[in-house]
Structures are given as structure tokens and as C-alpha cells.
Amino acid sequence: MTERILAERRGKVAVITVDAPDRRNSLTLALSGELAEAVAEAERDTGVHALIVTGTPPAFCAGADLTALGEAQEEGLRAVYAGFLAVARCSLPTIAAVGGAAVGAGLNLALAADVRIAGPRAKFIPRFLELGIHPGGGFTWMLQRAVGVQRARAMALFGETLDATAAERAGLTMRTVEGDHEQLLEAALELAAPAAAAPRELVLSTKHSLRLTLALTEHAEAVETELGPQVESLNSPEFALRLAAMRAAINDRK
């Protein structure tokens, strides 16, 4: 079977699929590089406003290819990280549609997205300690921010696995979507729709502000961080058009 990264456009949303079902979508060095390039291509495409990452059923991503890991030193590990770090660094809003097992580096791939939604068969499995491997790729940083310190330590130190219900309860996923993979993908597209409908630059600047304000400790700092981009948006042609349409709609109702 061909192992590949599938990239398609659904309107203004890029859908990127790890398509290697015979190996449960585990990431080889080649696939990781292809994933990074697919994310970069979506960012370059001015018609794309949001990105969804998923895996061909039954798995989401079973981690990194263990033969590649066994031979990897620092340079090789960075090559393994390339795919999910491209998602983590992506300037577009990102959604992980997790329909099956997300293991090790596959869990990193899910954590790298802004928002995660799960199918009923999703599982989130650290497995680093079980394999005798120290977590990598920013796993401990991402996990603690996603689920809190205690739950993250339970997963990283004691190998706790979360099914779809437990992941939603822990805040690792936003919600669970009942049904098959296509229904999960449709739910992800529905979630992405407002970003797809909004002006692209506004979407990008809002995500950038979210990143900046996450590290701040004072409300006043956040006010100042947001002020410049908000003024810029008020002076944009897109806002003028939407404001005119809103006023016309109000007048039509009178």
C-alpha cells in the first residue's frame, strides 16, 4: 500500500490526512517531512483559512516509526518532530480530528493542534516509558497545558491512557462526535466554518494574539497587545463591507 500525506481543500479549509493505514499511520521520516510540507503549502495558499489534520481509519497516528527512532540521534529526532511541529507552529487555526489511537508522537500530533475533537474510538496513549523512550518534541509542555499538571504527570509518568470519554472530561478534547470517520470530519469542518468565513488576515492576527497573550500575567498587557490589531481591523475594507451589510439589513427590517 502507498504511504502518503493526502492534502485536499474543502472550501477554505485544508484537510491533511496521514494515509498509511497498514502501519496505523505511524510517521516515517519521509511522511513527517511530507506532513510538514503540506502544512507549509496550506499556509502559503491565501485561499486557506483553517487546517484540519486527521488519519486514515482505524488509527489517528500510532506514533513514530520505531525503526527510524532506533537509529535516530538528535538530527534524526528533529526530523521525526518536523511534521507535528509544523502543525504546532502553524499560523492558521488548526483542528485535530482524532478518530482512533493517538500514540506517542501521534499524541504529540494531536496536542499540536489548537483544538481536538474525537470519535468514539479515539484513544490517547503516551507509551514513551513503556518503550523505554524519554518523551520528546515538547510533549511534556503541550500535555501539561492541555490537561493540567496532575493528569499530565499521570500520563507521562504512569502511562495513563485516555479513551474518548475520559479525554473530553480531562479537557484534552473539546467534544466527542458519535459516528464514523466521515461524520467526525464533517464536525471538524463545521467547527472550522467561522474561520473559513472570516477575513483571512483577521483569523491569522487573532491566533497570533492568542499566542502572545497566553504568556502574559496582567490583563492590562493583553489590552495593549490586542489594541493595535483591533484598530487595524476597524480600518480594513472587510470590516467596512460587513458594517455596511449589517446597516442595510437593519434598515430593511424597519
UniProtKB/TrEMBL annotation:
Gene Ontology molecular functions: enoyl-CoA hydratase activity
The UniProt record lists the keyword Lyase: yes
Pfam families: ECH_1
Keyword annotations from UniProtKB, A to Z: Lyase
Superkingdom assignment: Bacteria
UniProt cross-references to CDD domains, sorted A to Z: crotonase-like
Family, per entry: Belongs to the enoyl-CoA hydratase/isomerase family.
Alphabetical list of NCBIfam families matching this protein: PRK05870.1
Protein name: Enoyl-CoA hydratase
Organism: Amycolatopsis cynarae
